[in-house]
Amino acid sequence: MRYFLFFLLVCSYFFAFSQGTGWTLYSDKEGIKLYTKPTKADGTLQIRLLSSTTASIAAVLNTSRDVQNVKERIVNTKSLNILKVISVNEVYYQLISDFPWPLSDREVIVHAIINQDPKTKVVKVDSYSTPSYILENKDYVRVYTWETHSISTPKPNGTVEIDYWFTYNPRGSIPDAILESITKESTINGMKKFIELTHAAKYQ
Fold first, then answer.
1. Which of 12, 70, 141, 173 has the fewest other C-beta atoms within 10 Å?
2. What is the dihedral of CA 170, 187, 117, 157, to 10 degrees?
3. Based on the structure, what is the number of domains in the chain?
């Protein structure tokens, strides 16, 4: 009975923990799991992806450092302009997304920071919107809420596990169903492209 009660306690703990995260599995295909949280009242989307690559952690780091390939990874990117390079691991850039007429194109000013633990080799990439970094352009809708985080962990079997979060609010009157559909497909395609790029010769 004592062991049975302990088992129930452990199960209850893990159930409560999983419920507390708030993530719900939306899709699991082609080696990519996509989780979502309910859209916030202000229209902010929250998405999480879990996947892996057979490339080395060094290749993952090099791929992450090449900001220019963000244009290939984010669907409907109109342009990407480097604003300031602090170091190989820190950069500010402007990303303009092409939205279909009659919607206005979106612009986000991103501050990206990369860190690698010298012992575990785990790579962390954190990107934040910095809307006041440059003056707003009346031709675009400036995105204030944009935040991405990824943790890439090398595993004993030679793969690298990738855990990615994305929080986004494009602002404006965009139907939630359309926005969610576009964002979910875009993030999945973006993860596929990132994994593909980690195998590119220039990142080895």
1. 173
2. 170
3. 1
